User: Fold these one by one.
Assistant:
Number 1:
Amino acid sequence: MKRLITGLVVLLLIISGSLCLAQTDESTVKEDFKPASTNQPGREYPQVNSEGRVRASISAPEAQRVQLDISAVKYDLIKDSSGVWTGDSEPQDEGFHYYQLWIDGAAVPDPGSLYFFGAMRWGSGIEIPAHDQDFYALKNIPHGQTRAIFFPSKSTNTSRRAFVYTPPDYDKDQAKRYPVLYLQHGWGENEYGWPNQGKTNLIMDNLIAEGKAKPFIIVMTYGMTNEVKMGGLRNFDIKPFQTVLVDELIPYIDANYRTISNQPHRAMAGLSMGGFETRLITLENLDTFSHIGLFSGGSISPDDVKNTPGFKDKVKLVFVSYGSREIENMKNRPRRGPFGGDPKENIDALSKEGINTHFYVSPNTAHEWQSWRRSLHEFAPLLFKD
Amino acid sequence: MKRLITGLVVLLLIISGSLCLAQTDESTVKEDFKPASTNQPGREYPQVNSEGRVRASISAPEAQRVQLDISAVKYDLIKDSSGVWTGDSEPQDEGFHYYQLWIDGAAVPDPGSLYFFGAMRWGSGIEIPAHDQDFYALKNIPHGQTRAIFFPSKSTNTSRRAFVYTPPDYDKDQAKRYPVLYLQHGWGENEYGWPNQGKTNLIMDNLIAEGKAKPFIIVMTYGMTNEVKMGGLRNFDIKPFQTVLVDELIPYIDANYRTISNQPHRAMAGLSMGGFETRLITLENLDTFSHIGLFSGGSISPDDVKNTPGFKDKVKLVFVSYGSREIENMKNRPRRGPFGGDPKENIDALSKEGINTHFYVSPNTAHEWQSWRRSLHEFAPLLFKD
């Protein structure tokens, strides 16, 4: 447990970056801004240009100061004669980013954007068009369903929500049964992360339509069963969630969906904290899970393999991925080192021992959703290859 | 079409009420405030007291003026020495209300609340505990699923989203088939309204568990197929949505779900604009629908019956409901009169003609979600009684 906490703290330090104030030099800005795809219906702002800059705009005629706060930098907006404040950020990485506005010292969501849960809150998010966005585009192909369900949980004495992705043909052939991937969000996020900003359904619909992934079920539930408060990480304990997942959710899914309910056809993956959870839970439950995916969430070392009886026989895939900027950060902070050892070195060592591994680096992205969408897109085709 | 538009305009006038500024006399306020059930996880504000007052609070140290804007009234908040602004509203009707904050002239969502789509935007909403809230409480009983699906729509050349509620046993008995209710949101709302603030799944789960309603499928999709802009109502035309619903969505649902795909087992209902849509679409498609529900959305007159061949044979139920405050408003504005004639008089007249009708008034509520939750709760048990 101590290693988990140390790892999470290191990770948060890596994520947080430096906080500063900024104002963009407007003379260099490309004037090809368009409303973001993550805007509320009909809203003109925020906008994004071809450099990946975000232009925010809000009417606040009596305000003294309005700022756009994105990727840990605050950009001053400028007021025009009608009381509308507007301003641009520096270019952002392609993909999805959380952000907010500051109005005279109040941190608020941008009324122009759709809202997403991250950083322990529902707040604004913005999509910077990515060169590879086609893999999660909504296309005119057969679509699966994302089902909101409640499952009974004795250990927490609640009905708990999960989202269940069923592939396009699930309702057609009532005789067919499917493997299952249990897919976890990160710290400060919840079960809406993968279905919403994660684009899980569209990634899978597209992969299945192209014949690149086998159809399987994906189950996404809330992985922070402890008290949900900022700083609650210090009290984080894997046991309550392991009980919910392994003893309650999996039996419920197997009883209520046409699953292939055995170890070879069950996978677990997660991003960031969800990766740590995946590592801890799968290593303790190798009779339950055969495929393991850690997205920006540590790795599995030769020591882990040594200390886990039966690992080599039972584990069919160890997939580890990071954003390239995360890898760069690890190299620049050798004294801290990544959680559980250098992930590439670990994976190479496991590979030499004959374990089926896959290491993926998302180009030009950091600890953010574009890395994780791409990770799912790389991971899914490797699953359940009988 | 002209009557539809006139009706909608009258309705909007009734809804809008009077806009004014206010500040609550704090000496009379009961100090038993608790965080609202609609708050974001772990957030202390907004709060609600036993009188139904809303207490908003936000840190805005540099702001000059902060207001809580709810039920068309703006309440000034007061700043404390730490820069936190706090203030209360007058007592609100029980049930769900949209609201927002104003910070130095900027209208923004409250970062403490969950967000709901209404008034053409995702924004803050708050639940005032109702005396009858048990009928939409989350209980430890079998739960149905709310499925997010995409269906192909040639007429709009898009993949369109719908939510499909399937009752608790839907996945158990693969031989059983179910009736279907098509359920529409109001103007300025979207397909998230009924599943989120409408509590459709919980209302149905509870009714089914108590044996009060037959299990049936509910389909909820977006009913404003025209351009989504404020003021777009003037250009509202029922034809595009009727095409999506009748020619595209219904065949898709019948092909992909175990429906009883005939007129006696198909109902349509809607709230406000969704009621107008229901009235127009069902009257033109009586070979498709047998049960009609209009919630705060007009009524069906003896003239309608006369002008619609086969009405008496084909229609199994005409359900009309309003909030009691809407009825009071109609009485106070006799010159304008309600859309399509006095709803109670119309329903009584239909009843005398031998048509199966039901008129329901939600006590002490207006043109708001508590009226519509209660309407669904009254309507569902009357459906598909073979």
Note: Residues 21-129 of chain B form a domain with the Immunoglobulin-like fold (CATH 2.60.40.10).
Number 2:
Amino acid sequence: MKILVASTNRGKIREIADILSSADVTIFTPDQIVITVDVQEDGATFEENALKKAAAYRDVAEMSALADDSGLCVDALDGAPGVMSARFAGPNASDADNIERLLKAMHKMQNRKARFVCVVALALTSGELITAQGDYPGLITEAPMGSGGFGYDPVFYDPTTGKTFAELCQEEKNRVSHRKRALIALREKLQNQGYIKP
Amino acid sequence: MKILVASTNRGKIREIADILSSADVTIFTPDQIVITVDVQEDGATFEENALKKAAAYRDVAEMSALADDSGLCVDALDGAPGVMSARFAGPNASDADNIERLLKAMHKMQNRKARFVCVVALALTSGELITAQGDYPGLITEAPMGSGGFGYDPVFYDPTTGKTFAELCQEEKNRVSHRKRALIALREKLQNQGYIKP
């Protein structure tokens, strides 16, 4: 049995551990627990999901918290899979399942335009909420190419490098990251609003 | 500005830190945050306060949690100061203030019997709540004696050692701890109910 001691008083913790620790009981202290907040990412938009997660962490940690949500938006599919990106082919879909469903949905479609989208949300302790979005445009291939990355990377073709995201090395991918773009946009907002110095 | 990143993904955390860290911004990760749960100890009994605190920590940490509440109960004052022990002389009362108020309230009283009481509460993840109480009897002196301990220790006379708790060394005090008695009672309950081996 694992027991968390609801105290930061060292003397009290030692007294409790002395008496209760045994082969059956392991005593944990608050500084050994990593905060995990279960948030259902069931929002209608990336922004909604990111805000929900950031606010939940802020409330538990009593500290300004940053969260993100991201996915793939395909023009010809009216922005789908969007917030459903991770579960496009079902609740426990693998990357391969999701890719298969996407390629079927886009079979013989001419317009292959798509974007990776990331929204970052900052929930401040003051209650204020700040969000920023980053997009990276590309094209959906007819078949997967490359073995790197994850998610839809093997079918996301980047015209700038002439490769799918699964064919890019981590460093190249970081350079074109939609999350990076969102974070840079957030940094600018924080600077403009005087939260941080330019 | 301190910002908690609502993620345990190392790559994501690094990307965020790279872009947002600055002289103004310090990035924290969930494993750097010590859980602190603000619980109003406003219950009518030690048990109520201990249960409230244990349940709050259990809910945040999603782990069985143990909390305690304790105080001094004086027979001639119908158990007061009891749950008000820490704020007997007011919301921000010092130990000296509380002792002064106690000695005034007991001025010329013959019956000096009192008990230090501790209730420990274990809130299990199953939802079950287990509590146990430990008492240590003594007598309230006419004036403070000794400089050790804290709270009401200088006016709590222990007939077994012939000293006030403020005159005992830490080791002697641990031996007669009301919290220790509560923990031993809890351990017995856990053994009897099959949660841990005898």
Note: Chain A touches chain B through 52 residues (CB under 8 Å).
Number 3:
Amino acid sequence: MSINTETGVGWIGTGVMGVAMCGHLLNSGFNVVVFNRTRSKAQPLIDAGATWASSPGDVAAVSEIVFTMVGFPGDVREVYFGAAGIMNRARPGSVLVDMTTTEPTLARELYVAAGRRGVAAVDAPVSGGDVGARNATLSVMVGGDEAAVERVMPLLRLMGRTIVRQGGPGSGQHAKMCNQIVIAGTMIGVCESMVYGYRAGLDMERVLQSINGGAAGCWTLNNLAPRIIRRDFEPGFYADHFVKDLGIALDEAGRMGLELPGLALARRLYERVQAQGHGAKGTQALFLALESMRSDAGQ
Amino acid sequence: MSINTETGVGWIGTGVMGVAMCGHLLNSGFNVVVFNRTRSKAQPLIDAGATWASSPGDVAAVSEIVFTMVGFPGDVREVYFGAAGIMNRARPGSVLVDMTTTEPTLARELYVAAGRRGVAAVDAPVSGGDVGARNATLSVMVGGDEAAVERVMPLLRLMGRTIVRQGGPGSGQHAKMCNQIVIAGTMIGVCESMVYGYRAGLDMERVLQSINGGAAGCWTLNNLAPRIIRRDFEPGFYADHFVKDLGIALDEAGRMGLELPGLALARRLYERVQAQGHGAKGTQALFLALESMRSDAGQ
């Protein structure tokens, strides 16, 4: 499929992920208008040819497709619904694509608000981290009306390798929550296993040799266990951000009348990670929180 | 390394795993003496050339290396310490290899008792299931004195692909517990994710497409999630056996003064699986237990 690079593209949110993702659009020849709360972080994109706009609304006013990749649900609300936000200025017929991991209910709210203005909204959170963003190997989980999703699909394909429409509005965010819930379980399993193994006096390198090819095999074991062995707790994915995601998933689960005790436990444990001052460490810092627990101390 | 098939080998426990594993020894030309509580299950091995003995002790009396692969820790105790058991009859200089998944402390007990008779004991639990046993692709986690482990290594290599000495007596069992603790976490993560996804109205096939290549990727997601989608809860690994393993791991953790809340949760949830009458289903029946929980009902 050839891509019409005449499409005016807007990009809001140029953190580590956003800079890399938007960079792929620029490299493919798109004219991109950018905004970020901290302008300096957008500089690499401006140097690469992007045009600066002074607010999210100003981006939306000149764009046919607007991407947002910001931090927390509160940031998404501000960027869309704030006084200088997207919603007041979005062009009829345009498509708004929120790639932030945020609440499925907020995604539906954006969809409804946009629809009232004759604007389409798509939720498209990603997994794959900064490496996936740089190498355009992200998995993008897409929710929204089929026609709108089709319009943005060629651009999403420039940013990732696995682009799947999950269903209607909000379903991209729900799929991302499915992803985070699995990770919550694997993190607990891997970190508890390592706490156990060390206490039992095992050489965890040898244990990994024995177990990573079998039914215990998982990305977390392959990628984070070796870091824990080196006591490297630097962030691939921030514990603070994971707590945000776990909170979203728990809230949504609660709204749906679900009890997910493993997910609830993960949040309690990650709040302990934060209480230990490791919120800005990687998710593997869960190991430190578990290591500090003793059965006589209670939970 | 050439193998001396003159070594007299004994095999006790000819369930699904044991028959396949012992079969590889027979196929390699070893003379094997077998015993099983239910004789009929040993018949395929007898047909293939194994000699029947009428008790574990009778096996031990004529064997230089004795393998045991039985069910529960209580069965291991009976087979080794019972009146007609191995310990009273084991030949000085022989090696006893327990491949049952059992308590690390029991493995050390066997080691000490064997040592008093001038007999070596090795713990060598496996992972890989019946498929791994049939195809000789098991992972074998080995604990014991180096010399004893070296003596049995060529035979273990006939049964598996990944044979790693973890350390001294009991360390094979501890490594197996590390394996089970990781699986406990991945099972909770995957099953809760699927309960969430279905309630959110997602097509779980599409969700798997989006998430199984990334940080949520794990054996459980690749192998058991598709079965859950088909609502196939037939056993690969029995929930009942997993409850046994979780109990062993929790007991050992308790002895070491560790609190492992994810592991404790896994046991509570799998006891619920049993209470629902699904103990003889596969571990993926955890999905059914979680599906039946509601947030208003409490846990």
Note: The domain at 175-294 of chain A is CATH 1.10.1040.10 (N-(1-d-carboxylethyl)-l-norvaline Dehydrogenase; domain 2).
